[in-house]
Design brief:
The chain has 167 residues and is α+β, with helices and mostly antiparallel strands. The protein folds into two domains: 74 residues, Ubiquitin-like (UB roll) (Roll); 84 residues, DNA polymerase, domain 1. Helix content is 33%, strand content 11%. The chain is built from six helices and five strands, in the order E-E-H-E-E-E-H-H-H-H-H. A five-stranded mixed β-sheet has the order 2-1-5-3-4. Helix 3 packs across helix 6.
Amino acid sequence: MSILINGAVVEGPEDPRISLLDFLREQQGLTGSKKGCNQGACGACTVLADGERILSCLALAAQYEGQEITTIEGLGSADNLHSLQQAFLEHDGFQCGYCTPGQICSAVGMAAELKRGVPSHVTQALGSSIAMTRDEVRERMSGNLCRCGAHNGIVDAILETFAEVAQ
């Protein structure tokens, strides 16, 4: 069994019971994704599976055989930040930084959802184009908690980075 993680093919776990989060952190050394609640309630462990956001603490690594997993380490590097990572810096979208990797991965997945026309609970008009409003972003990011209170900076960073999605 193999999994594509951040562009590299890796051998899957020996134990089929290991969560994707533990596999990434403990066996692959990718510690950007955080173990917050370990119950799927905080979003700190959010990664992308074939471009869709998932809670890696609730997923078994074995479920993702042959799929592409993208963690925060796969979105950018210290020398080449993803545009959303740069926007988080510019808009003070983090304080302690614990939730930041999950917030960023979730926002990248959320932008793709909007582009595909996937509605949320607050989407006003169903159709092919959904406006990326503050309320829409807040609703879609509600599964990612920030206990420091950096929500306004997070929303500002997302709105600036993905403004073209709202067009």
